[in-house]
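As the next step, I needed to go through one protein, both as residues and as discrete backbone shape codes, included below for the reader:
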Amino acid sequence: MEAGSASVRARFGWRLWALVPVLLLTVAVAAVSLSGDRFAELIGGNPPPADEFDIRRVEFEPGEIRILVRNPQPDDLTIANVNVDDAIVPFTVDGPTTLGRLRSSTIVISFDWVEDDPITVGVTSSSGVQTVTEIAAAVETPEPSLDSFFGYALIGLLVGVVPVALGLLWLPALRQASAAWLAAFMAFTAGLLTFLGVEALSEALQLQALLPAALGGAGLVLLGVALSFLGMTALAGMLGRGSGATGFALALLVAIGIGVHNLGEGLAIGTSFAVGELQLGTFLIIGFMIHNVTEGLGIAAPLAKTRSTVLALAGLALVAGAPTILGTWIGGYTKSDVLGALFFGIAAGAAFQVVVEVSRYVARQAPGGLRSGYAIGGFLAGVVAMYATGILAG
């Protein structure tokens, strides 16, 4: 009986000791927080905050301008006055005039702006610091409607699903390829996914740099990368039964990785239309359509030595392309930069994990493994192809 009690105490004892560092850290953090600026004063003076607002979005409606502002500072900020083209204008605020940390309000200005003319808006805090943003051309902001809902869906279909489906038409040609050339095409898949992963990571870091540090900074991006990488690793383990994904399972993983990335592409397109950058949005549609055809080839390569039905191929095209539709809806109807940084981080993690799976496949199946000239050349060709077509989308 005493031996059993000792065993129970031992089991719970190490758990209690595991909490000790956490409790001590909590006490230390609380002590630093309560000390205020005393630690900074030991080193030097504590500079005052910039007192600048963060202008998140400027929307144009007939006879009206709406400015969404956020307070990125640790102290409260009060909206004192608003300028349009260097002239102080009357305004109302949809929300509080004094904003706490990370709080937002919408400034409403009655103003007869001129279509396609450049315009400058500025918001001044009670301390006299002005935040200015310039709009190259004033364009009426599209309002949510049934037409716009289907319009965004059509754009996502053309950018995501159609190009991937066209790329899958290379499958009959891949079935005739030799083992060495098939290894090159599999390495091509790894190259394009590596490019997409690096591109998504770059986009995520650029977006998080625009966010207040309190919203997570690079940690938000790392969270997205870790969640998707580990999630895709678990999925690959289930699909490959521990021995590595092949055939349709590997093609599905590639399609998922591409699909998460295409969600970010849809986000960029939807946002450009939502803020009135119609020419940019149209240019992105054409560029991404060309860019995404090669993604279909990447999905088709793992299927070269397996039998696939038309229904299965259609399903893969939807997995890779349909997230673009969701991305256009999110970008067109929401105003969250946090989601953008998180989604691109998730896309990067998913792409990198699928690169690992494709590399394992090439190492097992390709003549000469990863060191063969076909594998190395295919990888480089994938990077070059995505870079060349990406220029059209950039």
